[in-house]
Amino acid sequence: MDNISIYLQKFSKIGLGERELKENIILIIKNKLGFELKREDIKIKDGVITINTTPITKNEIFINKEAILKEIQSKLGAEKTENIK
User: Fold this and answer.
1) Alpha-carbon gap, residue 44 to 2, rounded angstroms
2) Domain residue spans in the chain?
3) Which of 22, 6, 28 has the alpha carbon at shortest distance from 80?
4) To 5 degrees, how large is the angle CA 48–CA 51–CA 49?
5) 72-84: per-residue pLDDT in tens?
């Protein structure tokens, strides 16, 4: 049994890929604000999410930035995201 648990520990450390992370961010923003974003609109680098979209959508995201970040961090892990630009 110990061998199986050691083997499975390797998989517990595997994080989400960039595609899955973007998909989850898109779902969180859609559920919170009702805006539909595309994967191409989101870039992630060093824990910073950069969103390229219309000014109106960006403003709504920035107004609700703290709530969105909190939900992203609770669902996806705190180490993944630190800020939205």
Assistant:
1) 37
2) 16-84
3) 22
4) 15
5) 888 877 566 788 8
